[in-house]
Amino acid sequence: MKLNLYQVDAFADKLFKGNPAAVIPLKSWVSDELMQQLARENNLAETAFFVPSEKKKIDYYIRWFTPELEINLCGHATLASAYVIFEILKLKKKKIVFECRSGLLIVNRKKNRLEMDFPSWMPEKINDYPAGLKEMLGVNEIVAVYRFRDLLVELNNEADVQEAKPDFTALKKTGEKVIITAPGTKVDFVSRFFAPSAGIDEDPVTGSAHSQLIPFWSEKLGKEKMIAKQLSQRGGTVYCEQKGERVMMGGCCVFYMKGQIMIP
Predict the structure, then answer these.
(1) Which positions are catalytic?
(2) Would you identify the CATH topology of the domain 124-244?
(3) How far apart are CA 224 and CA 7, in angstroms?
(4) Which DSSP state fits 227?
């Protein structure tokens, strides 16, 4: 069996920025075991697989695997998949409808930017978060902790997010995925995302985290349209909009590599 593999930098306006994702188009599903092996071999935060849908209003069904496990939602690898479909597979439409475990995901082509329509996940404030979380994150103070899928940890300012020094070994033992966030100086809000329990110490740019961040900051700032920055080493900019029960997040993609996988 031969499979094509594309690597794309998502939420990036130039090469070696944003979040790299592997994209593997399929004609029909291969085994879960093989998809996990391929994701582990790629050793990127996520590898996306998609197949054509038989449903009239759905274009593709999409799944995502980290090197360790399958996840239920991934933004940057969806953005990268849409880029491959539009730019390499030459889909003539201006909209792609994906179906996944989290429902329908829509990606619209807007000039040089792709805009994703994702679920809005408003996190709720909690008090029963892991003991020693402040020390695990390497921060001076935690303002509050919230949860939807992931822990969302509010910090005081951008510098606290930038200068956090997480203990990934300790975080992995909690089994939690953790977002740290604060108001931005030149953007509306900033964040970082840690998921060592999923095989990703720090993710460069995380679309699924923004499904929580957008409603959270929209309510706090009283704004529907915002610009966010993820403060990883590679960095990335996300154009955000809160739209009721959905959120829009947009960004650019840069093509890096095409390869072919040979499976006996």
Answers:
(1) 46
(2) Diaminopimelate Epimerase; Chain A, domain 1 (3.10.310)
(3) 32
(4) E
List pLDDT tens digits, range 206-249. 999 999 999 999 999 999 999 999 999 999 999 999 999 999 99
pLDDT on residue 247: 97
Q: Model-level pTM?
A: 0.88
Pairing of strands 200-203, 225-230: unpaired
Q: What's the fold here for domain 2-119+250-262?
A: Diaminopimelate Epimerase; Chain A, domain 1 (3.10.310)
Q: Give residue for tokens 């594309």.
A: 6
Count of alpha carbons within 13 angstroms of residue 158, beta-carbon side: 13
Closest CA to 260 of 87, 24, 43, 20: 24
What digits encode the pLDDT tens for the residues 105-136?
Answer: 999 998 889 999 999 999 999 999 999 999 99
| 65 and 47 Cβ atoms separated by less than 8 Å | yes
C-alpha dihedral over 5, 62, 192, 133, to 10 degrees? -120
